Amino acid sequence: ELKVEQNPLFLSMQEGKNYTIYCNYSTTSDRLYWYRQDPGKSLESLFVLLSNGAVKQEGRLMASLDTKARLSTLHITAAVHDLSATYFCAVNDSNYQLIWGAGTKLIIKP
Amino acid sequence: GAVVSQHPSRVICKSGTSVKIECRSLDFQATTMFWYRQFPKQSLMLMATSNEGSKATYEQGVEKDKFLINHASLTLSTLTVTSAHPEDSSFYICSANRDSTYEQYFGPGTRLTVT
Predict the structure, then answer these.
(1) H or E segment and range at residue A87
(2) Does B31 contact A at CB distance below 8 Å?
(3) CA-to-CA distance for B67 and B84, rounded, in angstroms?
(4) Interface test with B, best of A45, A96, A107 (most B CBs within 10 A)
(5) Model confidence over A45-93: pLDDT tens digits?
(6) With an 8 Å Cβ cutoff, is B113 touching chain A?
(7) Residue B68's Cα: distance from chain center in Å?
């Protein structure tokens, strides 16, 4: 059974600091996704990672994938308040379904 | 492209009534659509997978007679919550696959409150 674990589940940090969210998954998967969710809103796609060693960056967010370690990271550089949200990672199983991590609630204090 | 809409965005209904939620792919054809529910401070829980022209596949523990799903066309799936109860109050989100891609595109969600 494919499982996805995120950590930490909650993160409070100061603006300007760097931090990393980790996403581990239990069995081989074709691709890994990162999403952002603001309170009361649906999901916003951030990154789709398709291969080992993939690295994608958008603004202050950078995601990477190590398929051998079954690990993805979402790195936040010089955090700003606007990045406060809940971040989810997810992987595809063999039936096109997404298996979700529990989410990381990120609070960035001014 | 790859825009998914949901309607309504919010709905309040009385216990015992039924509510229909629509999910539309606006600029692509969606062979498969997914319905999720999300409780506060929790992750998404897949309720069912809906394929155009066939019966939905429900996840374990989801009552198919209570949560009726219809995927009548390649751009529209509906979720009807029948005989709603307060415990059905939740955030319902749909998503859609484009043909030949794994990626799911998410609708904006529907907040259901049952009083």
Answers:
(1) strand A85-92
(2) no
(3) 10
(4) A96
(5) 999 998 888 999 999 999 999 999 999 999 999 999 999 999 999 998 8
(6) no
(7) 10
